[in-house]
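Batch 3, record 17
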Amino acid sequence: MYKKEVNNFYITLKNFKQHITNLNLKNTIQKDYILKVLYFSNKHLTVEEIETELLVKHNIHISTTTIYKALKLLEKLNIISSLEVLESAKCYELNSNLPHGHLICTSCHSIIEFKDTSIDNKQLEIANTHNFTLTNQVMTIYGHCQRCQN
Amino acid sequence: MYKKEVNNFYITLKNFKQHITNLNLKNTIQKDYILKVLYFSNKHLTVEEIETELLVKHNIHISTTTIYKALKLLEKLNIISSLEVLESAKCYELNSNLPHGHLICTSCHSIIEFKDTSIDNKQLEIANTHNFTLTNQVMTIYGHCQRCQN
DNA sequence: CTAGTTGCAAATGCTTTGCACAGGA
DNA sequence: TCCTGTGCAAAGCATTTGCAACTAG
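Prediction for the assembled complex:
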């Protein structure tokens, strides 16, 4: 899978660092590692999960505050997106090139991604009809996953 | 508009009261008024707004806690739905018979509703493909409304 | 009577902010 | 050196919970 390619990560990281520099911000290990964790994750992570991953997989402690600040920056730069999971903390994921939706199981909170270009097009059309400039879209289907259908 | 019809409201209220009775719960003025405010609102309301409406339009004070509890019940009974507005309190609205999405302006936080059956069908199809039983769907398009496009 | 309900105060949990100190550029 | 970043502690804010008094059925 694309996201798991280590070489691709270094390209992403290099671009990211350049981006930070261009904005007259400072590159730090904290930002790099937070990006790294999101990059190599195959699921949507909460702040707490990011903190744990950093500790367990990379043996580095980064404060919750710093993670929040980094995520806020990454989201503003359109590098990541946040997702509201019912009744719990936000989840974060690296932006892929294509818009996509999520199926969230309200029992086990598992998240499945889906893509559908016909919906994407419809949405653009709808935004147009209402003279809206679309910046972002969230499409979430709540229900019960196969395993939770007791 | 349908929702504004007073006579229809009394039918809705009667059904609601029956529903409450059937569940061995108690009917109270608080529940009735909260339903009433949601029924006659033409926009999505936050808890704070509901509280104010109750006070201003109906001259009744209902505690924030009670409103939260009533809303939780109404949502569980599938009478209302909540909507996450970016970085602020949840908004509540009476369920209409048809699923629909929202366009939210990230500048002025105004909300426009839209309906599109082709998207609804696609969503059912997607849920099916993933062996998911759909209970609810949220579709939100974020962007800038006509007025906020400076 | 007796369970559900109300509403205050306090707790909770996620997120943000203030601030002193550390450290990139 | 300067200004951003880090991270602790504290604040903020929407929402929930504990609990005693209340009330609908």
